[in-house]
Design brief:
The structure holds two protein chains of two kinds.
Chain A lengths: L5 E2 L2 E2 H26 L14 H8 L7 E4 L4 H6 L4 H8 L23 E4 L7 H14 L5 E6 L6 H13 L3 E7 L2 E2 L2 E2 H4 L6 H5 L4 E6 L3 H16 L5 E6 L17 H10 L2 H9 L3 H23 L16
Parallel strand pairs in A: 3-4, 3-5, 5-6, 6-10, 9-10
Antiparallel strand pairs in A: 1-2, 7-8
Chain B lengths: L2 E3 H15 L3 E5 L15 H5 L4 E3 L4 H13 L3 E6 L5 H12 L2 H4 L9 E6 L14 H5 L5 E4 L3 H12 L5 E6 L6 E3 L13 E4 L4 E5 L2 H15 L4 E5 L2 E3 L3 H11 L2 E8 L4 H13 L8 E5 L8 H7 L3 H13 L5
Parallel strand pairs in B: 2-3, 2-4, 4-5, 5-7, 6-7, 10-11, 10-13, 13-14
Antiparallel strand pairs in B: 1-8, 6-12, 9-11
Helix pairs in contact in B: 1-7, 3-4, 8-12, 9-10
Chain lengths: 323, 329
């Protein structure tokens, strides 16, 4: 048996699993983009290509029973939290087998059994509920943590400030994961934030704040584990700032007229978290191809599963309004 | 039979639920030491402690939103939004989050959250502390909306709201807090969606909510002197609405007045009028009359405030209009 090499607490084997999961997210989203352009997928879709390391790094550090709230850019978080690609793809096709049974769509992905309390299409909309979930865990003395994902754009909205203030005031076990991709849709950070270092926003509430390179899954995982431990140990909430890059447009089909093409090309060449990890792992081409083929097959199978899924009846729309 | 004020009745329902059930807790602005801006939660901090009677920052989005999160974990929070005017601040959380999580998740989640709030004119606070906004929430699928007008109703309905598995926006009327009534020793839960006939009559049905229930009852007394027999129906819950009770009453009386303190335009009475014309058109002997506030923000000067919101005399005038119509002409 090969010697397991430790890298700051994560074995090569684990890191390969991270890589495989990130690759699955990447290939899944590329497929989503392809099928959307082919006219098969309804709705409004946002992919997170370039941000996969955060979803995987954070979700792999979660314990059973921890919960997340996600954003409009939710495919990665949803897969990383354990939803099967079949259920996710079926949701994007609007099928009853989907993770939200066809009622949600890409911006409203739920999987409550696996601790996914829902993606939110209102920027910052999911943060207060994470404080409330964490409050419930504290009330009941359960060693669980509630985690909110959101972007830099969300740090300008009131729910962000109210939620961080309340979480810190009440010392609830919550972790606020800011995916700072430096864009609020098409608006660059310099046009929407008067400061550069977002940890200062959390520090204003007296909240413990950690910052990590969001393109390095190993680092994200290591720092997220620290944040989660802090919260779980009853030491209060943590703001986890992940510096990342959105290597695609805001939505599928976004021509990105607002973006410098040379800069984007440079980022695609230097900041792709999958390429960085592939290099770090020293994956041979053969190993890479094998992994790629494996996840491609999963993704292709998810499309087949989704297409063969059950269409809701129109009148199913009347269900689930009230409990 | 103990006598309780409307204020004490709300407190009684909250306290009994909290004694019976660890999952029930309350939070809001100034509700702990101060006992709430209306004194509703006075004494509760002493009994239940600061973990379950939680003062919050002035953060309506987080008050409602954290209530949503705790509710989704199976607790039964009762959050207080101090004035219904401030619901506007938490509107996103109520409308986009609380009302929709169950639906968007395809039925995976429940949000058993009660949002208590109060308002009402008659004390000249001006335009941002007394408006009546209940109708705004009736058009939001996923929410239930309650507006109770008596101590026994507010107690029994609040209990039902707390134990409902859906988000309930629970309206109280400020000027009713001192109203007293004998109530049963034990809480009698009132089903959400059941109207109450306050007074039976033969000639006109007045469908009234909140303070206007009492104005309608006063108007009915005066109408009686004029030989007009008035039935007063309080829907009590606006969503779901007990359409059957309203329609049955109108089919009996053949005339209908709707009355609420909120502005007439797009007020809850518009929905009632639509229900009545559709389900009892052939029984109507007169157009449905509408009583509500004039279409202005609430003014400050008492003489203007008094003029803008409806009173018993306005209900009486509407009653007269309906009976002056000869149904055979």
């Amino acid at each position: 048996m090969a010697k397991v090499e430790q890298r700051r607490g994560v074995s090569d084997e684990t890191l390969r699993e991270f890589f495989r999961e990130m690759l699955l997210i990447r290939r899944f989203e590329e497929k989503v983009e392809e099928r959307f352009r082919a006219g098969e997928l309804p709705g409004f879709l946002h992919v997170g290509i370039g941000q996969e390391a955060i979803a995987v790094g954070v979700c792999r550090a979660l314990a059973d029973g921890d919960v997340i709230a996600s954003t409009h850019r939710a495919h990665g978080h949803t897969l990383a939290k354990g939803t099967h690609p079949n259920e996710l793809m079926a949701e994007l096709y609007g099928k009853l087998e989907g993770c939200s049974h066809g009622y949600g769509g890409s911006m409203h992905l739920y999987d409550v059994e696996r601790g996914n309390l829902g993606a939110n299409a209102v920027v910052g909309g999911g943060l207060p509920a994470i404080v409330g979930a964490a409050l419930a865990f504290k009330f009941r003395g359960e060693p669980r943590v509630a985690v909110a994902f959101f972007g830099d754009g969300a740090t300008n909205i009131g729910t962000f400030h109210e939620s961080l203030n309340l979480a810190q005031l009440w010392q609830v076990p919550a972790v606020f994961v800011c995916e700072n991709n430096h864009w609020a849709e098409s608006t660059p950070a310099k046009q929407h934030m008067p400061i550069e270092d977002l940890t200062r926003r959390a520090e204003a509430f007296g909240m413990k704040s950690l910052k990590v390179d969001g393109q390095d899954v190993e680092e994200v995982h290591r720092v997220a584990a620290r944040a989660l431990k802090h919260a779980r140990d009853g030491k209060g909430p943590v703001f986890l700032l992940c510096e990342t890059q959105r290597l695609v447009g805001h939505y599928i089909g976004d021509p990105q007229v607002y973006r410098d093409k040379e800069e984007l090309n440079r980022l695609q060449e230097t900041a792709d978290p999958l390429e960085l990890l592939r290099e770090k792992l020293g994956l041979s081409d053969a190993d890479y191809e094998a992994l790629d083929q494996e996840v491609q097959e999963l993704v292709d199978a998810s499309v087949e599963f989704a297409k063969a899924g059950t269409d809701p009846k129109p009148e199913d729309a009347l269900k689930n309004v009230y409990a | 039979m103990p006598e309780l004020s409307y204020r004490e009745a709300v407190r009684d329902a909250l306290s009994r639920a909290m004694r019976a059930d660890e999952d029930v807790f309350i939070m809001g602005e100034d509700i702990a030491e101060m006992g709430g801006s209306m004194g509703v939660t006075q004494g509760m901090l002493d009994e239940f402690g600061p973990e379950r009677v939680r003062n919050t920052p002035i953060s309506e989005m987080a008050i409602v939103g954290s209530g949503i999160g705790a509710a989704m974990q199976g607790m039964r929070p009762v959050v207080e939004v101090m004035y219904e005017d401030f619901l506007t601040i938490s509107m996103e959380q109520i409308v986009n989050q609380a009302a929709k999580h169950r639906y968007m998740s395809g039925g995976q989640l429940k949000v058993p959250l009660t949002i208590r709030t109060q308002g009402g004119a008659g004390w000249s606070p001006g335009a941002q502390h007394a408006q009546q906004v209940e109708a705004w929430f009736v058009g939001v699928p996923g929410l239930k909306v309650v507006f109770a007008s008596t101590p026994s109703d507010v107690r029994g309905l609040l209990w039902s709201a707390i134990y409902d598995d859906n988000p309930v926006v629970f309206f109280e009327h400020r000027t009713l807090y001192g109203l007293k009534e004998e109530v049963a020793e034990e809480i009698e839960p009132i089903p959400i969606g059941q109207a109450r006939v306050h007074r039976e009559g033969e000639d006109v049905t007045v469908v009234a909510t909140g303070r206007l229930v009492h104005e309608a009852l006063a108007a009915a007394e005066e109408a009686e002197q004029e030989g007009v027999s008035v039935e007063v129906v309080d829907p009590r819950t606006l969503q779901p609405l007990d359409e059957d009770a309203i329609v049955a009453s109108v089919k009996k009386t053949n005339r209908c007045v709707v009355a609420h303190e909120a502005v007439t335009r797009m007020g809850f009475g518009a929905e009632v009028a639509a229900v009545v014309q559709q389900q009892a058109f052939d029984w109507l002997d007169a157009p449905v009359e509408r009583v509500g506030a004039k279409f202005t923000p609430l003014p400050f000067a008492p003489v203007m405030e008094e003029y803008v919101v409806p009173h018993a005399k306005d209900v009486l005038e509407a009653i007269r209009k309906t009976v002056q119509r000869d149904g055979t002409s």
